[in-house]
Amino acid sequence: MDSIPQPVWIVTDSDLEQYCQQWQQQDFIALDTEFIRTSTFFPKAGLVQVADKNDCYLIDPLTIADWSSFGALLDNQNVVKVFHACSEDFEVCHCLTGTIPSPVADTQLGASLASLGGIMGFQRLVKAVLDLDIDKGETRSDWLQRPLRAKQIEYAVADVYYLYKCYQRLVEKLSDLGRLSWWKEDCAHLLESGRISDDYSQQYRKVKLAWKLRPQEQYVLQQVSIWREQTARLWNVPRGQVVADNVLWNMARYQPAHLGDLARAGMKLHVRQKCGEEILDIIAKSMLAEEDVWPITLNKPLTPQAAETLKELKKIVTLQGEKLDIPADMLVKKKTLEALLRSGSSSDTYTLPEILLGWRNEEVGQNLLDYLK
Q1: What counts of helices (H) and strands (E) characterise the chain?
Q2: 177 and 324 in contact (C-beta within 8 Å)?
């Protein structure tokens, strides 16, 4: 850790604009964010770290007001933004700038494709790629406090300093393996799945046992889930502090008509007092909606016969993963195999999901189709 450089602090809008112009000329930069998200819906940014070929930089979100130059950098298609496990970083970037980085390179994905092991934290990545042991003891510290402690600063700088080096090594290793295009393809999929939308109509799918509800009840669940998402964002609190998933399910199943019914469904008193009439109105209107606006009915669990077929597909993936020295769940996830299996449930003509149409098509996709045929 002695080789970690002293950071360049960026605390004014003009400095940020100046350095963003400098980073616009780079082929790639390493990025990380530190934030607090214990009692809010949106992450509170405490620090943004950047590394380029010259230095490491710490951007202070508590003093920056104009993020437009940083947003332009994130949108620059000629600069690769390197992250490790970037999904939460996407949210922080979106909160600050209104955009998410593109293109990106996620070293967690790259390490798996480079046969360095399964999904790994940054500490394991640095050990695997650089053979260095780093301290991750500041992960849960308070990044909104000022001044930051020396150990926090060292930790924050180390993240992007070593991330920059890991990226270079992974590019070399994946190039030697002929898998660099695989990494780029998977990062493009990651970027697409990480896009942040104002369409909350699919949130109901995440509610446990939603498939057990009747079609009309699933529509009610969809509508109350949309309301919860909007409310959680408006109040800036976690979804569960508005209404828990099981309460949403109860409302969809039993359609409360009175405030007392909401209490029996499990809705907390302060939410009932503030929003009870509104949610009762949403439920009542949902029950009157025409069938043509109901969502497509959620899939029920696989039949025993289909479940056995799924096991055989998993075996194919596991064997191919061992051959490629890639973790099986990195090669093809269970959800993807289920989607493939369901695609032929009515016609016996199977369609590969999009994730299996790229490099995975030749490596494993055709094997799966051949077995199903």
Answers
A1: 17, 6
A2: no
Q: Is 258 exposed, middle or buried (0-12, 13-18, 19+ CB in 10 A)?
A: exposed
Six-digit token pair at 277? 């009439």
29 has which bridge partners?
A: 81
pLDDT of residue 147: 96
Report the pLDDT averaged over residues 57-63.
98
- Cβ atoms of 118 and 177 within 8 Å: the answer is no
Q: Using CA atoms, how far apart are residues 241 and 331, in angstroms rounded to an integer?
A: 36
Beta bridge partners of 56: 51
Residue 240 CA to residue 232 CA, distance in Å, equals: 9
The average confidence (pLDDT) of the chain is: 96
Half-sphere CA count of 198, side-chain side, radius 13 A:
3
State how far Cα 145 lies from the chain centre.
27
* Confidence at 135, pLDDT banded by 50, 70, 90: confident
d(CA 318, CA 331) in angstroms, rounded, equals 9
231 closest CA partner among 255, 195, 267, 185: 267
Beta-strand ranges (E) seen in the chain are 8-10, 28-36, 44-51, 56-59, 80-83, 104-106
Residue 2 has pLDDT above 60, yes or no: no
CB 287 within 8 A of CB 220: yes
Q: How far is CA 264 from CA 217, 228, 280, in A?
A: 18, 18, 13
Q: CA-CA distance, 229 to 235, in Å (whole number)? A: 10
* Per-residue b or e along 317-350, where b marks 16 or more CB atoms closer than 10 Å to that residue's CB: beebbeebebbbbbbbeeebbbbbbeeeeeeeeb
> What three-state secondary structure class fits 204?
helix
> At CA 186, angle to CA 120 and CA 192, rounded to 5?
110
Tokens for 354, please give them: 């999009």
The pair of three-digit structure tokens given for residue 226, joined into one six-digit string:
């949309």
Query: Does the CA dihedral 25-27-32-33 come out positive or negative?
Result: positive
CB contact at 8 A, 103 and 80: yes
